[in-house]
Structures are given as C-alpha cells and as structure tokens.
Amino acid sequence: MNTAADIRQSDILDRCVSIDLEVDPEKAKIFAFAAVARDPDSPSLVVKGHVDAGLPRLDEFCRGFDHVVGHNILRHDLPYLAAASPRFLKLAEAPIDTLWLNPLAFPRNPYHHLVKHYQDGRLQTGHINDPEFDARLVFEVLENQLSEFRRLNERTPDALIAYHYLCCCTPNSGGFDQLFSKIRSAAVPTQSEAEEAIRRLLTGVACSAMVEQTLARLDDSSLCWPMAYALSWISVAGGDSVMPPWVRMQFREASHIVKVLRDTNCGDPACEYCRTQSDPKQALKRWFGFDDFRPEPIDEFGRPLQERIVESAMQGESLLGILPTGTGKSICYQIPALSRFDKTGALTDFFNTIRSQQSSDVFGQVLSRGRRGDCP
Ligand SMILES: [Zn+2]
C-alpha cells in the first residue's frame, strides 16, 4: 500500500518529463535524444539520426509537463537545446537537475547506492547511445533522492530549510522549489528563517564569527548553491567522505566556504569551536592519545617545541622547525595534516604530507593512536 509520502512523491514525478541528449562534443551537435514520462507504459520519444527534423517533436512532447528533469541538464542538455532553437528556452524555466541535487541527498561516500550507475556525477549506464535508458534512469535517481530528503527532513529539518532556501536563490529555480515544498509541506523559507536554520546546523561544527561573516555574503546569490554543498559536506565531516570532484570544479566557492567556516581561527576565547579545534594538546590527545607533548626540547619561553610547531602549523603559518633526531618531528606535520583533513576534507594536503614524510608507516601510527609509550 502506498504511504501518503509515496503519493505526494509520485505527484511531483508525474509532472516531470525526463530528457537525455547524446552530443558529439567535437562538433557540439546533438545526434540522438529521448524524452520519457514517469509512467513506463506511457509512450516515449526517441530520435536517433535526423535530429534537426525531430527536435520540434521534443518541444511538443514536453508540453503539458511542469518540469524538465535530467542528470546534468543545467550545464549540458538545456544549453545545447537552447543553442539548437530558442523554442527550448522555456524548458529551462523550472528544471530539476538530479546531478545538482545528489551531493545534498547523498553527501556520504560513495554518494549514491546506485554506484554501478553513478560515478562522480555521471550516470554510468554501460548503454552507450541509449538516451531512453538514461532518461528512465533519471526517474530512479530522483525517486531515491526524494526518499532520502524525506528521511533527512524527519531527522534534521533545518537541513531541508537551508537547502530549500539556498537552491531557490537563483533565477528559474521553480523546479527545485516545487520539490522542496512538497517534501517540507511548506513554502520557500524567508532569508531570516534560513539563516537561523544554518546557525543551528553549524553550532559546534564551525567558527561562530565565520558563520556570521558567511551568512552576510549570501546576498550574492551565486554563493547559495556552494553554501548548500558546504553544509552537506560539513554534515558528514570527520568520516572518509570528500566533496565530489565535480562539485569542487564547478562550485569552487564550496570548499572555500568550508575552509573559512572550519579552518579559520577567529582567536576569540569565547568561540568554543576555535578554542577546542585549534588547541594542539586536544589534537594530540585526539589523534595519538597522549596528554602532553614531549617536555624537551623547549623554546625560549619554556614551552615544548613540538607544541609550538604544531600550534603554528595548525594556524596555517609558514614555519621552519628544527628538532634533533629522535625528538618527535613526525607528529609536527601529522597532527596539522590530520586536523586539516578533519576540518576541510583537504585530502591533497594530507597525502602530500605523508609523501613528504616518505614513510609507509603513517597509517599504522595513526590507526594505533592511543597506544602507550612515548609521544612519537
Ligand atoms: Zn571562532
């Protein structure tokens, strides 16, 4: 028996038409396309060859649907269609792009359970030049995303308030608005409602001063999608999930926002996040299980050199640390690298650090943190 949520979900899906274009990238020419409705028994439109003559039929087919849906349609299919004929501009009035939604619905590595179909933004169908298959698969992906958003809405309604607002800041976002309105049973939140939700989401996981600074920048609507991706990554920070590479490429501000929120020490002792996350001793305890750094050698103020070096590196300062052999140089770069990976998911820093250490044992050391004995 269908639940009320299933019925509401099919509601929006029935108003969507899924399209998929096959494009020759060298000639920038569409050579095949398909358009399908949700109902697998309803007729579909598939055109291979003689595409110019077939395009008017696509226009006709899409009439009567409220939303064009597709995977990467905003930066792929719709621009190609608009270039082919201005009649397709109206398809771009309220589209839903499943690629753009995916990191919000599935922030955790490996991002989507349809792994065999889905790798870093592309649907891996194994059906080359089968646009009908791909167009049907988009409905499956969208259904999974809707179910996941419903679960998230029950668990963390603030996330859905934030995403609803952030995904509807730019023009022609009526498709995303409909989708989130259905899930939340509410209209798009006001800016202040969204800001309050974002503050609650980021409490304890980001610098409070940087949260305010970032919220003030959201008047620039081009930062809204990057902010949504930053929030979704932060929701799974501390695990092994990295922001999908296509997000880092197409929404460069997303990782910058994460860095500002989580890896900028405001220096205010009242900021609990910065006080705890920038504390070298807490980092030592967390990553290696030791209470204190080695008492020798010390700096001119009597502080352990290891601690001074780790503190400076965690604050992103350029530094030159010189320690005698056997006095624990390795943690001086391991702790800052682990801390940065935890805060921003910055894998490259982490692995470059490992490479520079030229040691294959770093994982052994990290994994066995907490063992007794001398601080490494
Ligand atoms: Zn702070």
What level of helicity do the residues show?
A: 40-55%
End-to-end span in angstroms?
60 Å
What is the chain-wise order of helices and strands? Answer: HEEEHEHEHEEHHHHHHHHHHHHHH
Q: What is the third-level CATH name, the topology of the largest domain?
A: Nucleotidyltransferase, domain 5
Helix and strand content put the structural class at: alpha/beta
* Overall pLDDT score: 84
Query: What strand order characterises the main sheet?
Result: 3-2-1-4-5
Query: What gyration radius follows from the Cα positions, in whole Å?
Result: 25 Å
What is the molecular shape? elongated
Number-wise, the strands total 7
The major pleated sheet works out as: 5 strands, mixed
CATH uppermost class of the largest domain: Alpha Beta
- Helix tally? 18
Question: Hetero groups bound?
Answer: zinc ion
CATH architectural arrangement of the largest domain: 2-Layer Sandwich
The overall number of domains is: 3
Low-confidence stretches: 349-375
Q: What percentage of the residues does DSSP assign to strands (E)?
A: 5-15%
